[in-house]
Amino acid sequence: MDLKETAKAYKKEQFDDFGLGEKATSGHYRVLNKDGSFNIKKDNVPLLEKINFFHTLVSMSWPRFLGLILSTYFCVNLLFASIYMIIGVEHLTGIYGVTPFEQFTEAFFFSAQTITTLGYGQVAPTGILANIVAATESMMGLLGFALATGMVYGRFSKPAAKLKYSDYAVMAPYKDINGFMFRVVNPHGNQLLEVEASVSLSILRENSELRNFYPLDLERSKVVFLPAVWTIVHPITKESPFQELSVEDLFRRDLEIIVVIKAFDETFSQSVYSRSSYKFNDIKWGEKFKYLMSHENGRVSVDVSGISSTEKAELNEVRFD
Amino acid sequence: MDLKETAKAYKKEQFDDFGLGEKATSGHYRVLNKDGSFNIKKDNVPLLEKINFFHTLVSMSWPRFLGLILSTYFCVNLLFASIYMIIGVEHLTGIYGVTPFEQFTEAFFFSAQTITTLGYGQVAPTGILANIVAATESMMGLLGFALATGMVYGRFSKPAAKLKYSDYAVMAPYKDINGFMFRVVNPHGNQLLEVEASVSLSILRENSELRNFYPLDLERSKVVFLPAVWTIVHPITKESPFQELSVEDLFRRDLEIIVVIKAFDETFSQSVYSRSSYKFNDIKWGEKFKYLMSHENGRVSVDVSGISSTEKAELNEVRFD
Amino acid sequence: MDLKETAKAYKKEQFDDFGLGEKATSGHYRVLNKDGSFNIKKDNVPLLEKINFFHTLVSMSWPRFLGLILSTYFCVNLLFASIYMIIGVEHLTGIYGVTPFEQFTEAFFFSAQTITTLGYGQVAPTGILANIVAATESMMGLLGFALATGMVYGRFSKPAAKLKYSDYAVMAPYKDINGFMFRVVNPHGNQLLEVEASVSLSILRENSELRNFYPLDLERSKVVFLPAVWTIVHPITKESPFQELSVEDLFRRDLEIIVVIKAFDETFSQSVYSRSSYKFNDIKWGEKFKYLMSHENGRVSVDVSGISSTEKAELNEVRFD
Amino acid sequence: MDLKETAKAYKKEQFDDFGLGEKATSGHYRVLNKDGSFNIKKDNVPLLEKINFFHTLVSMSWPRFLGLILSTYFCVNLLFASIYMIIGVEHLTGIYGVTPFEQFTEAFFFSAQTITTLGYGQVAPTGILANIVAATESMMGLLGFALATGMVYGRFSKPAAKLKYSDYAVMAPYKDINGFMFRVVNPHGNQLLEVEASVSLSILRENSELRNFYPLDLERSKVVFLPAVWTIVHPITKESPFQELSVEDLFRRDLEIIVVIKAFDETFSQSVYSRSSYKFNDIKWGEKFKYLMSHENGRVSVDVSGISSTEKAELNEVRFD
Q1: Chain C contacts of A14, Cβ < 8 Å?
Q2: What top-level class would CATH report for the domain B20-40+160-312?
Q3: Which CA distances in Å does C257 have to B32, B270, C22?
Q4: C300 - beta bridge partners?
Q5: Is it the case that residue D174 has pLDDT exceeding 70?
Q6: Which of chain D's ends, N or C, has fewer CB atoms near its CB within 10 Å?
Q7: B120 CB near a chain C CB, below 8 Å?
Q8: Residue B30 DSSP label
């Protein structure tokens, strides 16, 4: 027995198993959600390792993020106002409040003026203690707002390949054979370059709850740029894993087509990734995509809204011997 | 029939079709404009997907960008001045205006001093409401100016491979065959490394309005660095798509040579891309480029202004059997 | 003798020697520490080349970093307070201190209000000299805090592939042969893409204190993404360097398995590296890793805490002829 | 005649000609200076294309950079002081100067307090005109200092592969043949990963002032990391261009060895490049590098200062048939 061959065979079979190991699941479920997030949960992660402030701050929604900044700002000022009260408001000039509440309010606003380095000066610290607190607060304000404003800009300038996938994939005639196809479009104005797709088929093993993953060869796996619509085609050649599986097999074995697209976003000068997946119900058999392009005045137009439009198309009869 | 071979043939023919699909256009037009932008329009994009604030802000011209910042600054101050007026100017100390206009003006400038965290203090808020607004405004100012100044620096430090292409490409003798050639130069002081060119020929299919794209093999597709002028050469070997096409064919079938150059910009530490294209009228047949280099005092000089200079050159008679 | 062959052989033997040259060490020691840092010391480096402020600032601990900023802030204010004292406190309005210490304290806090651009104004410079110092100080403050706050955000947003490695590697049955295996998991919420592992075996030469390094072929050296646990497997095929070495050899020749993992961190949009190593005592012979995945409600769960759990497993008898 | 073969031959000969074209120079000169800058001048570059503010600001020395910021700060304040004088100092409260010079000085410092958003308030604008100027100045200050401080941090955090090359390259015995060798060391604490070297030989053509460039095959062209010293070796096999050239040839034809090293700097999370070159006088024939490593307490030490130390070594007699 040729062990080298065996090793190669092993490699092919398990290539790209996405770190999901061999044991997956028995039921019908998604490995990858439609939006590209993973349908997986990590248990028993020590709390300290789980927390990643930057990741949390960069991926939360804008309203939550701004709410967090606002409430932090509020709490920090509450804290410093309390400190000024403890030191004694007589060490702040220009405080005219009589009741403790009035005094606390004025100390609170003095704190806000200090932490933002606004410094009107109508209220100002006197004495060493109050001055130390104010000097510390203004420096903390500079560092703290550096984080906050850095995050604001970091979130704003974070690239994301917001590609739009066709709602359905199709099995359509492709030259004199057939092909598994889906389409992607970049609806935005920013330019994507060196766009590279990798597509995998995931099915359950026969009579098992383990999953196998097979990479699918593509007509083209890379385009230099993506100004319009790209139809990604896996031709059903003799080597295709689709070749040996009937439609019933695919349903029964819970197929999932996993798509990862990598590109260079020219606007952000960074690499970006996009993920999606198609399940059995997302595939139309014997349909093809409609053309989306027209031209007028020497310019090509693409009707982006029609990206999922399909029409009936007779599949080719193919026989490989 | 060997399906694998067929699949390979398909691949070759359609390689690098730049996502323009099969259907392109019948008339003579440009796929790529001279400046590297695409001659393509996207229709029916949902408004929300179309908008990309960062891309818009990063790609607009400097005058428009600065105008936008200035007018935003003006409007936000108008807004806050109105709020202070509604609260009542008596809650701002140091307002000496009598007429509403005078008061509004003073409130406006107080707002400007607050949002920039300038805070002279000749005008200052008193009372809870005015203080809340001022504290909020100064924090908003910090976050807002973080975006504005981040964009200013982001725009300023954004890399762009501003390569200069020769105005014309030439078909010139190359060793004992001929070659399709054009030149690029980096006129700037920044160093480009790992410069990689990919060049494609696009022509209409016979009696069709569909376009085919053929990658062109280059003498060298990559240079380690680009200190001076690089002449990019596609040798017309037996395999060249030019080999089977007459000059008349090329004109009739509306050829376009599409160029994409990738490089690493050492100054910005980032990858940069440059695009251009040559149409039939941009090609000179039977001319060659003039030498641009001279040396004096042990140093090489390149005359960048002569990048498009050509001179007559007899093409080689080549016969492939 | 075929010199080309010889050259190839040389290459294979010394591939990936990690710049440690040929001479290493006689005793049992680690090339790479468990945490990925190098067990190597550089001597006689000129002081100026050794110092790299950015590297130092980015890699020191947070408490030390914040302590450094605080003490710099304190010292700079001491310095400027001294300058204001030398100029004469009578050039600062609003100084009410009588003793030199009181005056110095007030000058100190005035300096703090100036360098942070707080500027209450209860103390303000008069006269040319004091004004020049204050104007210079505020500009220095802006530039200095730009560095400090840039470092704060740079440290905060610095990516690091904090992968968790299994405490032990195992020699386990793998299909009908055996395999050297270890596991990695990304305990964090951020997504790692294009995860690539390179693993090398380092052993002492026979009767020598020199070390050889051998790259180990992996079942898969790359996965497109890493949502859960990845078991990295080096199959002991005929070509494996493990094939010719007994367990006693490995101990005697002080084996070290060196692991480098590269990935693209989607949260930070940057490439990250992780390193680790296994010594003889970190390898369990004839054990295999336990499965970590379960599923419920159509979702896969991974028990991250069990990453190092192993169980007995009979090794396959393999004979290569 | 096989044209494909010819094309290949062309490719080999001219590979990596660094964009210097065919025409170079007759005399003995350097293509690349020792410090990695290019010995080349670009003439007739239109002024506007030549200027690249970012590149200029990022590559000037620190003293010049800080001088530029300081003088800009001074000039802008001069400008605004003049504007306030034109408007009339009576629109600034708190100006006590009597002579125009005194008034101008006070206006100058008021401008400085405004542009840094310091805003003591001892001087403050009154009236619409002065307020408009002050509001504009503070906003300009925020944007302008964003550029200045962005550049400060950008310069500070800019990666640079400051590798140290051995002063000399050697032709030394290598196994049973000989090898052309030089050494590099990273004297700094930051980690370089995926270090990749490409080395080329440049010589004049026979009886010509044109230069040819030949890539040199390396024993290893890439190491996964570079914790210590890396000896880069070009083995003089049958295929080496050195094989056909005598030492006299190399001198007469003005050899230059051009080195480009690429690496990933872990501290800066970016790709960095380093360049150097060796001329005839920088090569020692029949010498080899001394070992630099020792070990104590289970730790390897590298004596970085000895990177250029060589000792006599008999070259192997090699005969290729």
Answers
A1: 219-220
A2: mainly beta
A3: 52, 34, 17
A4: A40, C295
A5: yes
A6: C
A7: yes
A8: -
Tokens 């989607």 belong to: C266
Encoded amino acid at B307, one letter? I
Topology at the third CATH level for domain C52-157: Helix Hairpins (1.10.287)
- Regarding an ipTM greater than 0.85, the answer is no
Residue D72 binned pLDDT confidence (cut-offs 50, 70, 90): very high
- Give yes or no for D117 touching A (CB within 8 A): yes
Helix H or strand E segment including B152: helix B128-156
Q: What is the spatial distance between Cα B247 and Cα A235, in angstroms, rounded to a whole number?
A: 35
Q: Cα A246 from chain centroid?
A: 34
The answer to whether A225 and A231 have CB atoms below 8 angstroms apart is: no
Task: List phi, psi (to 5°) of A288.
Answer: -135, 160
Dist. CA B214–CA B202, nearest whole Å: 6
With CA atoms as reference, report the closest residue to C220 among C236, C237, C233, C229. Answer: C233
> What is the average pLDDT value for chain C, to the nearest integer?
83
Query: What is the band of C103 on the pLDDT scale with cuts at 50, 70, 90?
Result: very high
Domain with CATH 1.10.287.70 in chain C: 52-157
Cite the residue boundaries of each domain of chain D with CATH code 2.60.40.1400.
20-40+160-312
Contact C20 D304 (CB under 8 A): no
Q: How many CA atoms lie within 13 A of D95 on its CB side?
A: 27
What Rg value do the Cα atoms of chain B yield, rounded?
A: 30
Averaged over D185-189, what is the pLDDT? Answer: 82
Half-sphere exposure (Cβ direction) of D280: Cα atoms closer than 13 Å: 14
Contact between B258 and B146 under an 8 Å Cβ cutoff? The reply is: no
Q: What percent of chain B has pLDDT above 70?
A: 84
**B117 with D117: Cβ contact below 8 A:** yes
Residue C171 phi, psi dihedral angles, 5° rounding: -105, 110
Between chains, do A227 and B19 touch, taking CB under 8 Å as contact?
Answer: yes
Q: Is A105 on the interface with C (CB under 8 A)?
A: no
Average pLDDT over every residue of A171-186: 92
pLDDT of residue D26: 40
The mean pLDDT of D277-305, rounded to a whole number, is 83
CB distance C16–D223 less than 8 Å? Answer: yes
User: Does pLDDT of A28 surpass 70?
Assistant: no
The type of residue at B124 is: A
Q: Which residues of A are less than 8 Å from C190 in CB distance?
A: 52, 55
Q: Do A188 and B46 count as a contact with CB atoms less than 8 A apart?
A: no
The tokens for C182 are 């270890």
What mean pLDDT value characterizes chain D? 83
CA C12 to chain centre: 29
- The C-alpha of C118 sits at a distance from chain B's nearest C-alpha, in angstroms, of 8
- Looking at residue B295, what is its pLDDT? 66
Mean pLDDT in residue range B119-127: 90
CA distance D21 to B290: 11
- Å between A307 CA and nearest CA of chain C: 26
* Residue range C166-175, pLDDT digits in tens: 999 999 999 8
Residue D15, C-beta contacts closer than 8 angstroms, at least 6 positions apart: B220, D213, D214, D215
